[in-house]
Specification:
The protein is of the alpha+beta class. The protein is built from nine helices and 15 strands. The longest helix has 15 residues, at 190-204.
Length: 326
């Protein structure tokens, strides 16, 4: 019998000010289907002691204002409680923060929750500088700046500039560079040129990021003719490649779980090696990436081969036996 999951209540806490306390309750789910209160046995860590401190028994006390979390660990499992203490004393009304898209809506919700008034609309000169740097990595040309500032302020003229920049070659060049950096593309040979050209084509075509990721993770072939196949050349060991995939595509560092339970996240050794098993059948022969009919990752303690399993998710019963990546 072992612990399969950990939960905490309350998991999302909004307190009104400093010197407030709240007791956390931690429950472990066991492999036999039972649950157990492990509040007194779990280990607690505050991600920011200047905002919240936590006792050995799971009692939190607010010391400052802001947003942080409490990490809870027990028997190789990890949970987290999110703690918020509003930064201001006066409520923020929704009408003071107009929204344009769903991202604005999420930001508005959090600012209202934390009582942070929205910043005022930027001046045209600041907007123009920021949007050029964000989208092209360059400052606007002097003549373009003068023409833009000569117009009366409006949302339409700002949207027009955004659309023009998104259609520009400078945007494609800049974001190809950023994507190439993220994917650790380097080298000067044919493979690097083919890979870079493929990335640039994806940006120019406005390909969805999920489509780009799927192609990178599943591509095979000669790297001098199949650009995305070069991604699998980052590492020959499936564990090393899994670490790259976790960082690049999932935004999480799993390397610590290679030897022990992750000290600041929920990943266990078993999670790590299950995930690495997705890449166990990849073979590199010179510049040729292909899938073998065998290959596995073994549990570091038991030596048993592990089936591929996503991080933080149950095993996929429909996994492709010939190529688990698909």
């Amino acid at each position: 019998m072992h612990v399969t999951a950990l939960s905490v209540e309350p998991a999302d806490i909004l307190l009104s000010g400093t010197n407030e306390t709240r007791q956390l309750r931690v429950t472990a789910s066991l492999s036999n289907g039972a649950t157990q209160d492990v509040t007194a046995l779990a280990l607690y860590t505050s991600n920011d002691d200047s905002i919240v401190e936590v006792s050995k028994t799971g009692k939190i006390t607010t010391l400052g204002r802001g947003l942080t979390s409490i990490m809870i660990r027990y028997s190789g499992q990890v949970a987290a409680a999110r703690i918020a203490v509003p930064l201001g004393d006066e409520p923020v009304v929704a009408e003071s923060f107009p929204t344009v898209n769903f991202i604005d809506q999420h930001i508005r919700t959090e600012l209202i929750r934390l009582r942070v008034p929205p910043s005022p609309l930027s001046e045209d000169s600041k907007f123009l500088r920021r949007v050029h740097l964000d989208l092209t990595g360059r400052l606007p040309a002097p003549e373009a700046s003068r023409a833009f500032l000569a117009e009366s302020q409006s949302a339409e003229k700002r949207q027009r500039v955004i659309d023009e920049l998104l259609r520009s070659e400078s945007f494609v060049d800049f974001w190809t560079l950023k994507l190439a950096d993220l994917l650790l593309l380097n080298g000067k040979g044919d493979a690097a040129r083919v890979y870079h050209r493929w990335l640039r084509e994806q940006i120019a075509a406005n390909s969805p990021f999920d489509q780009i990721a799927r192609t990178l993770l599943t591509a095979t072939g000669d790297v001098t003719s199949v650009g995305p196949a070069s991604f699998s050349m980052l590492a020959s060991d499936p564990r090393d490649l899994a670490e790259h995939v976790g960082r690049i595509f999932l935004g999480t560092q799993i390397a610590c779980a290679r030897c022990h339970a992750h000290p600041t996240d929920r990943w266990t050794q078993e999670d790590y090696h299950h995930f690495a098993a997705y890449f166990a059948r990849l073979r590199r022969d010179g510049g040729l990436v292909q899938v073998s009919d065998r290959g596995e990752v073994n549990h570091p303690k038991s030596g048993e081969p592990l089936m591929p399993k996503p991080l933080g998710a149950p095993a996929d019963e429909t996994i492709n036996a010939a190529d688990p990546r698909l």
